[in-house]
Sequence to fold (202 residues):
Amino acid sequence: MVNNNAIATNDAVIRGALINRLQREYATDSDYRIIPELGLWHGAARIDVAVVNGILHGFEIKSDRDTLIRLPEQMEAYNSIFDRVTLVAGSSHLVDAFKRVPEWWGIETAHVSADGLVSFNTIRDPRNNPKQDDVSIARLLWRHEALEKLESLGKADGIRSKPREVVYRRLAESLEPKSLKKYVWNVLQSTRQGWRSDAQLV
Fold:
């Protein structure tokens, strides 16, 4: 049934409501971080909201005013990095979303009422990502963060002045996947300071 009191959703409204909801959900957990517009693949992609809380969970918003044209390339980036991903879509994208995203992605719909209140409806809960890419995960680090870890492992010889991609590949080769994720998630969650101004942390 069509809700005549609903209005077309937009990214900014949904993102603000989503962050507020996540803050409430994690209110009793002091050890988490919400990162709006987290850059991936050296800025080639960007996810709307990421939550680091022992795992990395990405939330991609596709409002009624968006299209799904960029979703395939975004999926490639998200699938290589996140432990879990949830697509938060306007109602107009729900059918297409089911056809396009992997079965392990979560799906929610977002509705904005005439008075501006946003409500979310869970269609499918997210599951664990069956396959991630170690180098893509390492690229979430700043160059000096990757080098610091390599120094601690005694694996930095010969690459200190090399391009960052060489550093990331060395790090991915030097750690087991679980250890690599643990280090990167910890940096994002607890260690890193001085983030860029367009992605203030919550």
User: Anything to note?
Assistant: The first strand starts at residue 6 and ends at 7. Residues 1-5, 196-202 have pLDDT under 50 and may be disordered.
